Amino acid sequence: MLEVEDLSVGFRVDSGWIRTVDDVSFTLGAKSSLGIVGESGSGKSVTALSILRLHAQRNTRMTGAIRFDGKDLLRLPERQLRQLRGRDIAMIFQDPMHSLNPVLTVGEQIGETLRIHRGLDARTAHSEAAELLDMVRIPDARSRVDDYPHQLSGGMRQRVMIAMAIACRPRLLIADEPTTALDVTVQAQILDLLRELREEIGMSVILISHDMGLVAEFVERVLVMYAGKLVEDAPARTIFEHPAHPYSEGLLRAIPSPDEDMHRLYAIPGRIPDPGREPPGCSFAPRCGLAQPACTTAAPSLKVFGPGHLIRCPVRLAAKEASP
Amino acid sequence: MTEVSALAASDDMRPRAVRGRILLRRLARHRSFRVGAGIVFVIVVLALAAPLISSGQPNAMALRNRFAPPSAEFWFGADNFGRDIFTRVLYGARNSLWIGFASATLAAVGGALVGLASAWFRTLDGIIMRIMDALLAFPAILLAIGINAALGPQVSSVIIALASAYVPRIARVVRATALVVRELDYVDAARVSGAGAGRIIFRHILPNSLAPLLVSVTFVFAYAILAEAALSFLGIGPPPPHPSWGNIIAEGRDYSVEAWWIMLFPGLAISLAALGMNLLGDGLRDVLDPRLKIEA
């Protein structure tokens, strides 16, 4: 259903162009789920925004192809793309506090999608909006539908965002850190809700997060991104139990676990390089415990590590070949 | 105390009404808004009720009353044709307020459209704003004189002239706010829903840019009343004999020494109206300031 092929995204800066996403490829079938993981600045959100072409056009250069049902979204005329947005592909954002228009009631905002794509009149849209609120488990939906965003809590607002997103029963939902801005207890509720809706509507989901644990339990396949590049692509189970790339390993180790001695939280040393100032060779080499001299000179490519499992790390690949 | 009970009581009301009530209550508490709104209200009522307050006609001449000084009969005195200045100031308020209101409204509509276009179509922004800068470089009154001279002496041309003179100011304000709003998440959310440019601009960006627009409109209203007087003083205002505050002053110019009352009273009316609008605008600005969140 969705095929992303060699997607690169560059943004204009004073001194030229910097690449924030570099040759990312993946596919996603109908009714399946995919997680994109990485720390801030790894390019995961940029990848997601590219699918709906939400970047400011003047300052962005995108190459490669993003095919949805065979149509290349990067080359689709704006008008046709607009018909896909909200109807076939929907998105929820990280910060529910700012993703709702303060001067419109939540019912009006949910109804907007319905009115755009299904041409409903205000009254029908309003009652369908109430049903949608009910579907996302907002208690007393009939009266909540006339509330303004500021009258709702963060968790409620995120439910409203989800209601907006699923209004037209899209086939693909992109959730960009949907729970990052919420309390831990609310996070679990929102994820449960997303899981149920996914089954109910039968949509594919792309979940973007920096939280390995959250992604691993929600999706079937995980992409790990670092400095704009894919470094590992594997089934969720594999990556959680046997991560192959040292960066994925680090991300997993950074999840505090109750079994371990918890005197000190683990953190990957150093920080992600600025876009445009990546070191030669492997971008992760300066922070990597396994780095060899060769890592700092030749840029590694993505290679098959196991069945359905790709990694960008020659050291690990060599180690595997040495002891099969 | 009252805050808490009022909020509790408002729980079952429609939220739009709640929001409106909160705003109104804040305005009612704002001292300069109260004074300003009071002044404007009184002037508007006097203008509307002019026939009830004064039995005379604004253009009725009575030569034996020429230059009658203020007295019990002629509160504000009479002019060179013996016309009652009080009556003329009352009726003049109608013209002056209408010109102020109409040109402020037109300027608001025009300025909002220009500002929104500039903020949305980034490629046009440079061109549009340079044109606006060029217009701003002229003093508004000079611009109005030019436009008015081209259109001829009518009330409508005064309105058009003043409105065009103030469009750039409003456009700048709207553009600045709209540029901020367009980058907010809910605008992206609207794009994700498949909304087109028109819907995003008029349903999401404009309503969220309204507060600063409203505030500048009140100031433009005040400027326009002053500018109308200035245009009249220069002889290119609304044509006589229909009174406006500006042309009453203009007609009294030649007798300013002997009959000071002809110019004094409409002048006071202008100052008072401008003061009232400014106070009202100050109050609106304070209450609508986006930094002060409207909590429910």
List keywords for this structure.
heterodimer, A: 324 residues, alpha/beta, Rossmann fold, 2 domains, eight-stranded mixed beta sheet, four-stranded antiparallel beta sheet, globular, B: 296 residues, mainly alpha, MetI-like fold, disordered N terminus
Short description:
Chain A is an alpha/beta fold and about 325 residues long. Helix content of chain A is about 35%, strand content about 25%.
Q: Could you characterize the architecture of this molecule?
A:
The complex is a heterodimer of chains A (324) and B (296). Chain A is 33% helix and 23% strand. In chain A, the strands form 2 sheets. Chain A has an 8-stranded mixed sheet with strand order 6-7-8-3-9-10-12-11, sandwiched between helices. Chain A has a 4-stranded antiparallel sheet with strand order 2-1-4-5. With 324 residues, chain A is α/β, with parallel strands linked by helices. In chain A, β7, α7 and β8 form a beta-alpha-beta unit. The relative contact order of chain A is 0.14. Chain A starts with a strand and ends with a helix. Chain B is mainly α and 296 residues long. Chain B has one domain (56-279): MetI-like (MetI-like fold, Orthogonal Bundle), CATH 1.10.3720. Helices cover 74% and strands 0% of the residues of chain B. The longest helix of chain B is centred in the middle third of the chain and has 36 residues, at 85-120. Chains A and B meet through α2, α3 and α6 of A and α2, α9 and α10 of B.
